[in-house]
User: What shape does this take?
Amino acid sequence: MNARRTPAAGVPSTDDTAREDRYRIDFATTDPERARAYLNTAFDSAMTIRAHPDTYRFRHTRLGARPFHLDSLDHQAVIEYRCGPEAPIMVTRVHRGLRTDLDRDIRYGTGDLGLHVHTGRTQRVRQEALQGSLVGIAPQVVAEVARNDPERSGTPLSFTAVRPGRPADVHRWLRVVDYVADSMHSAPEFITHPLLVGPFARLLAAALLTTFPNTCTTEPRHYDRTDATTAALSRAVGFMEANADLDIGVVDVARAARVTVRAVQRAFRRHLGTTPTAYLRRVRLARCHQHLTDAGPFSDATVDEVAARWGYADPARFRADYHHAYGHAPCRTSVTGDG
Assistant: This one.
């Protein structure tokens, strides 16, 4: 066996030297039993593997932890698995080889996307010389993003197809995943920061809901329009100003404003010409500016660290937004200590 790994959340390790980075895994083995034990922990599943021991190989890498993770997989075997109730919703993309859902007789070849959701029953899959990438998202995050009314549970979310509805949906999904992956790799030290991880998870969940057909209600209600008042906007803005340092999403803002998600979105468009997400980013940019102004040239924190603290994973995006808002680069503020 050849196994090299650093443990992620929920994946135990006996290698004490690998504990410094809890959010990265690189695991490889030629032993099916070791792979089975590893996969059961990594994916909250009960799994069996059928493969020829002389030719078996397995490799898995993971970046991230709950509420989402990005994986790559190299595997050739027939597996049967039953996921636990807390297992993530998975989207698999085949890069090479073939993955077959034996129960549904659905084959995924190179370039195909497939959705895998906890069903409570054993599922059988054959993976033939498979090289693929996976995105796992906590089901609670997807359910939250699917909600319009924060105070009503509504109809339970379910997916009506395991393949994307249109080619355009595939392209959009891939763009979102590439953006998140590039951001996470460019700032790995901030991988656990809630103002980075939370928005990334919700972005992936929103892309998931527009990629795979589901029962999420999209029809607007009359109160989505009539509740988009200045009073609701004032409550939403006050909530954002008071909680910009926390991982808040549009559902939290709508709950604080005591209206639906669509109503709060409409209120921001109608009265401010922007979106709740863009307004929150503006508030956090102002906090970055204040932080840099107060710290001056004697702060130990770098500009990029300050930006990440307020939810900017992409330093280039931060610098562009900052220059647009304040007319100069953020380093000038951090050096001079003035605005």
User: Anything to note?
Assistant: The first strand starts at residue 24 and ends at 29. Strands lie at 24-29, 45-50, 58-65, 68-83, 89-101, 106-108, 113-116, 123-137.
